[in-house]
Design a protein that fits this description.
This protein is mainly alpha-helical and 155 residues long. It has one domain. 49% of the residues lie in helices and 12% in strands. It has six helices and five strands. The protein has helices at 17-31, 39-53, 64-67, 71-91, 97-102, 118-132, and strands spanning 3-8, 11-16, 94-95, 116-117, 146-147. The protein has a three-stranded mixed sheet. Strands 3-4 form a two-stranded antiparallel ribbon. It is globular and about 40 Å long. It starts with a strand and ends in an 8-residue tail after the last strand. The relative contact order is 0.24.
Length: 155
């Protein structure tokens, strides 16, 4: 499993590709439910779905600096992210491999072979919301902000 960075302004965190792919899929799914979406949001949703399903290793890109260019945009994405986090908390303690496989993330042939602790995706989603809210800063010199889990298998 590769890992990808999520960048926003001068902040960055790293996470396993499969965690970010599932998060981007869930966020896109949530934001698609909004009616009368602005064009930028439709573009963001399409981008996040593409990166969730691409199978890219080490380069899953949320493109937050491209899409979250104003406080209104940030607020909209954060609100969607908070709804996804609420949904995830209701799924505890695990997301089943069958549910995860129904998302079809990670590229052709990728499969989850076991259930995954929902806490992993909650940590990824919390970091995603936190970076947009300015609660994650730049990584320390020579280091990185890394979100990980021992129980998060590769998709």
């Amino acid at each position: 499993m590769g890992s990808s960075s999520t960048d926003f302004r001068d902040a960055r965190f790293w996470t396993g590709d499969s965690g970010l792919q599932v998060w981007l899929f869930l966020l896109a799914r949530e934001l698609e439910q909004l009616t009368a979406r602005p064009q930028w949001l439709d573009e963001a949703i399409a981008h996040w779905r593409d990166h969730a399903k691409s199978g890219a290793i080490g380069c899953v890109d949320a493109a937050l600096d491209r899409f979250c260019t104003s406080q209104n945009r940030i607020d909209l994405v954060v609100a969607g992210g908070n709804r996804v986090l609420e949904w995830l908390r209701g799924q505890a303690p695990y997301l089943s491999k069958d549910l995860l496989n129904s998302f079809k993330v990670g590229g052709r042939g990728s499969r989850f072979t076991k259930d995954v602790d929902v806490d992993y995706y909650i940590r990824v989603g919390t970091a995603f919301v936190d970076i947009l809210m300015g609660r994650i800063g730049p990584p320390p010199p020579g280091g990185m902000n890394f979100i990980y889990s021992r129980r998060a298998p590769a998709a």
